[in-house]
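Handout, section 3.2

Students often ask what a structure token actually looks like in practice. Rather than define it abstractly, here is a full record for rRNA methyltransferase. The first block is the sequence as you would receive it.
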Amino acid sequence: MLLTCQAGFEALLARELTELHGATVAESGAGWVRLETALDERGVERMAMAHFTLREPVEVRGESVNALAGQIAKFFLTRLKGERIEGTWPSVWLGPAEMVGLGRRIGAVENACGEALKKRLSRVAKLATPELPRGAGAVRGLFVFFTDFGRAWVSRDAFVHGARRMADDPLAPSRSYLKVEEAYGVLGREPQAGELVVDLGAAPGGWSYSAAKRGARVLAVDNGPLKGGALDHPQIEHRREDAFRYAPAEGGVDWLFCDLVEEPHHVLQHIVGPWLARGWCRRFVVNLKFGRVDAIGLLRELAAAESPLARAQAVRVRHLFHDREEFTVVGEMV
């Protein structure tokens, strides 16, 4: 099994695998870790640091573009026997972006492999798409991860953990907008028109703007100013209050948003815990900063029976594409 992550966080990915799942790491590199043995289904789904998991990958080596492409095409054709493909299927080719020139190599091998498949199975080859389905879950297609110019790992089955690059919005007042946009895919839901969102620590308003543009009504709670598309937005009511002291009035809040630059245990104790215990929200998206704490220790605490998150359902903790030293936590109470 091979798992990818944000480059620079592979040591944390390896620690999560070994300390929380008892796995044995075979090797690792910039943005990836390969295991000796696979995790079980539940273990894969619970991974926080992973972006993409290749199941039962097969190693392919070659000195030239054509040699690599030929082996990958042969692998796909062999594994395709007995399978009928009627709709689009993902053909995803990845590798460490930090390795200079590797992107061009991957592109060349991908094109050569595509041409080889068209000669053998034109109809199937034309149905290939480089796009992964949005959200998290198991997918089947062709997945290739290059660890070097002459070495790749290939699989027909993968698990997508929800991380993906999101399109920016020129009206969004901050890059944090991208984080909540990405989080919707992990939860599988997003704010709807007419729903009520409380955004604690809202300024400058990236998350509030994301909900408001979908027609949700937003209470943006922060003593700081809103900016960009969040400023004077008709769907956003700015409450100049302390996020830690704010309590909603009677009536259900559909979404709790919280992206505070605060110690994570303080946020868990004074916001997440009370909000979930009192049933103040139906769904939540919360970012917890781990820059000054042990990230793996924090993951262990979040999964514990006494964690505030134990009250919620469909909880997922992820280190997403647009996250820095922080976890995105999503879940629902309904």
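Discussion prompt for tutorial groups: The chain has a mean pLDDT of 96. How would you have guessed this from the sequence alone?
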